[in-house]
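Example (one chain per record):
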Amino acid sequence: MPPDAAVVVFDGVCNLCNGLVQFLLPRDPAGRLNFAALQSEAGRALLARHGIDAAAADTVVLVEGDRAYTKSDAAIRIAELLGWPYRAARIGRILPRAVRDRLYDVVAANRYDWFGRKDQCMVPDEDVSDRFLS
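Predicted structure:
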């Protein structure tokens, strides 16, 4: 994988997070986004490299080159990478990060109650398995 590749680190047992991955895959036909479950060795290593405690992480993280985006910044940057019309999400940056992240935190804190959780991480389909770090 190129050193500047974009990797989405997500909670592999969270139904909402898995739904996000399933949403992103067909909308990224160029394959700019790669994926790693938070519970995987690759996901934990990426987070550690950027000083993020995997055990306390309750956010999707986008690692792009030497930069790690979290919470609302990660969501907006992922949308930008998808291109139009998703790139329009950058307008969300007009809100202060503290406001955006507070809204994000409310969803993150309730994601298991609202959307449920799996007993184990998702297994990607064979046609996209090369985009998942293990």
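Caption: Residues 24 and 108 are 18 Å apart (CA to CA).
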